[in-house]
Design goal:
mainly alpha, two-stranded antiparallel sheet, two-stranded antiparallel ribbon, 6 helices, flat
Amino acid sequence: FSRGEGDGVAADDRVRNAAFAETVKVDALNSEALELGEGRMLVLRLAESVPEQLRPLAEVRADIEARLKREMVGAELDELVAELKRGLDEGGSAEELARANGVEWQRIDGARRDAQGLPRALGAAAFRLPHPAEGEKHSDTLVMPNGDRALLQLYAVHEGEVAIGADDEALLNEMRGASSQAAGDAFARGLRASAEIVKRQ
């Protein structure tokens, strides 16, 4: 793949940028770990570097046409997603907007930050949105790692609960005891430091 385009995982701009970073290309170090979504991680290391050179037009014509088509489709998708978001922001029904535009809309209730089956990029974007007040909804758009466009709407946030077992409770009590002991020791040291000692002859 090249700096400007690639196939498979190299279709992701982040992958190409990491591959052509100076630390990877010049210093021959591993790249930082990249999250590809759905629990996949990628680390790049240089195996071979081919000097840049101009390719004959006949050889690259098909690639150029495919790239132009992808860009046109991407622009059309961006325009559609922006239009759908305007509809949501103006109070439109997500289901009706999706049906009218021939796109898929999926409602997920009670999604957790680590929910299985929810794309990582989508979950991260949802949890970055501000908490909506009662009766309000917040929406956002994003480009998925594979180039798909997504529109999400957040309508409620429920604070999670932490279940404490017997072992956890014992640990908490031990920590409270240690904290109290430390506070008592500090208080005693403070008394000794501020005490005035009078010697009688």
